[in-house]
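Chain X:
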Amino acid sequence: MSILVVGVSHKTAPVELLETLALDPEGVQKLIADVASSEHVTEAAVIATCNRLEIYANVDRFHGSVEELSGLLVDRAARPTHQLLPHLYVHYDDGAVSHLFAVASGLDSMAVGEGQILGQTREALRGGQELGTVGPALNSVFQQALRVGKRAHAETDVDHAAPSLVQAALAQAVGESIDLADRRVLVVGAGSMAGLAVATVLRHGARDVVVVNRTGERAERLAQEYAVRAASLGQLQAELERADLVLTCTGAKELLIAAEMVPPGPVTLIDLALPHDIDPAVAERSDVTLVSLAQLAATLDDTGEGRELDGVREIVAEEVAAFLSARRQANVAPTVVALRGMATAVVEAELERLDARVPTLDPAARAEIADTVRRVAEKLVHRPTVRVKELAADGEKVSYATALAELFSLDPDAVDAVTRAEGLS
């Protein structure tokens, strides 16, 4: 079994296409269930954010699985297959591990190095666990990805060097020197992005902040956490009329703020939702500044330059190598056990034959013979047992002849001679 990733993100597709793949929590659960029911899939999880949708699966076949999982994304995009397929990417086995570690560390984010993706990765694991679609393979790689992400943020200054999407959007909307002391801020939404938005505007001096959400309880909970106001969705129009900075980040399928709802400005609107919450037509007004995900995707520097991100890359590379080495060693463990079991079985069978052929053998002599035979067998299997683990850890591809020489400490020239002789026979 091997891990397969099929996905689409801001790096491979325009925001307009990503909007067609935006899923609410029920949609994510349905996708996971559909993936898990695929013929070649034994485990499934999905990472769904405002700028990526990725299927993670443990599969027994590559080609059939890629076709099935790609088809599930095509179905949800409601676009012709030829329009979506060029924007999909596939990672398999070692590449899938490397990709997930990079994602969890923020290296693949729109705002490179941001920390929010770590929580979204954790949510993907939790979602699969609750649905019973995550087994040993995905649990292992996701748990390690979370540890890698935490390590990256703990051991580097990436938190200070890399902006969140909210921070980047504010910088684009009001300038790099963000001062919100005199702003009346409206945050529409109550999820993790909304929480980040509230925390960010407060950090930049905002004192008049209100949270509006379709579910009043969630708005109240978020407002209490940050000691700001909460309002119901029915009060959205009234709050729009008093706000001069609006950030939206809901999971709504329809527009929440139509162009005619925005009162005469000046007003700054930041739409971080997918699909968008605010009617893009409002940007045509001269008194309105609108920043959207599409604009951020076009302007954010995702090359990830700087020592902090170099440090994250080094951590990811190191952790990927360690994980793959441990996995290879675990994969050879059954072979090692089988080798030792076979040796033990041969020894015991030969001792039984000895007992049958020489039933009058002195017990002391029999014990000495048994110990001698067992030592011989142990010495024969010890070297290959150690070397097979070392070869698995190195991950190097070796020829059959080289493997024989390595495992049994043979003269390479002798092995090559035997190999050539067999080839001529």
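Chain Y:
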Amino acid sequence: MNPETLFSVANAVALVGWIILALAPLRRPLAIGAARTIGVVLAIAYSALLIRSLTGGGFEGDLTTLAGLTAAFSRPEAVLVGWVHYLAFDLWVGAWATEDAGKRGVPHWALIPCLFFILMAGPFGLLLYLATRMILGRKAAG
């Protein structure tokens, strides 16, 4: 598959995971397991893309400098590797937040904006969830 097709497939697969998390109150453990499975599938795809890029010349330049990193990510294959990395990690963090919210009694309605921001701006979304958990959480995780 070409990088554009792989990009579209990865986005669609990740979106399924996010929709499952948004519907988590219906079957929380099943939703978390499904999202984590999708996260693992994305991590496997990431690993394959990374190995292919490293062995096939997809990454060129010095990755220890900003200029080198910019040069490396000027190639579609390298951008695809980076994007799938984001998709896998953000979905995993979203699944963790969903699980943690259930344990701590954070209302699902309050989790939804956090999930959106974990998807769109990972670390900011995580911080938003941690703040929400601190304010609205009712019990300690066990």
